[in-house]
Amino acid sequence: MSSNISIQKVCEYCGKDFTAKTTVTRCCSDDCAKKAYKARKRAEKINNAIEVVEVKKQKKVKPIEDLREREFLTAKEVCILLNCSVRSVYYYISNGIIEATNLGNRLTRIKRSNIDKLFNDNLRRQPKEKQYNVSECFSISEAQKKYNISESALQKIIQREEIPKIKQGKFVYIPKVLIDEVFNTEKKDVF
């Protein structure tokens, strides 16, 4: 059964006028129909990709908003909130930077107010270490000879008394004033 209908239409893809033999024809030729189909499918893929990205953004934002409302958080939730690793959160807990309570095996809980308090505190300023000139310092070997002490014993004293070391080239220097104070107090303690 052939159709005797002829309708003037405009091609949806290229925009040219053509004579259609059916009422559902939308393109002027088979090539235009294939190109229009590909364009339609391409647009669908792009729209799907955009929707997926928007859903992911909403999922990403929503947990942070939920975390801000909760009173007690886990270490993993704190790492999301602070934008750091879980290992860093446990490091902060072990060093006392963040206060936490361990309620049992794998039940570390952190109060939300403790995290807020981190940012409310003034910046902890560490005092700047005094800069020593190399002329005011002993090298390690000079200190060993002057005080007649072994290298390992001197290293232990430096570490125990937290005496700053100055590295210059291949030599390590320690301030004369500080090392003299240490050995003078030790001599007083002995007698």
Taking Cα atoms only, what radius of gyration do you get, to the nearest Å? 38 Å
CATH fold-level label of the largest domain: Molybdopterin biosynthesis moea protein, domain 2
Strand segment count: 8
CATH architecture of the largest domain: Alpha-Beta Complex
- State the shape: elongated
Estimate the mean pLDDT confidence. Answer: 85
CATH class of the largest domain: Alpha Beta
Order of helices and strands: EEHEHHEEHEHHEEH
Give the termini distance in whole angstroms.
Answer: 125 Å
Give the fraction of residues assigned to helices: 40-55%
- Total helical segments: 7
| Spatial order of the strands forming the largest sheet | 3-5-4
The computed structural class is alpha+beta
Describe the structure.
- This protein has a 3-stranded antiparallel beta sheet.
- The mean pLDDT is 85.
- Helix 2 crosses helix 3 (86-94).
- It has helices at residues 30-69, 75-82, 86-94, 112-120, 140-147, 151-160, 176-190, and strands spanning 7-10, 17-20, 72-73, 101-102, 108-111, 137-139, 166-168, 171-175.
- The protein contains 7 helices and 8 strands, in the order E-E-H-E-H-H-E-E-H-E-H-H-E-E-H.
- It folds into 3 domains: 28-61; 70-120, Arc Repressor Mutant, subunit A (Orthogonal Bundle); 134-185, Alpha-Beta Complex (Molybdopterin biosynthesis moea protein, domain 2), CATH 3.90.105.
- By secondary structure, the protein is of the alpha+beta class.
Quick rundown:
By secondary structure, this protein is of the alpha+beta class.
Task: Write the SSE topology.
Elements: E1 7-10, E2 17-20, H1 30-69, E3 72-73, H2 75-82, H3 86-94, E4 101-102, E5 108-111, H4 112-120, E6 137-139, H5 140-147, H6 151-160, E7 166-168, E8 171-175, H7 176-190
Antiparallel strand pairs: 1-2, 3-5, 4-5, 6-8, 7-8
InterPro entries: DNA-bd_dom_put_sf, HTH_17, SinI_DNA-bd
Domain Helix-turn-helix: 72-120, 138-184
GO molecular function: DNA binding
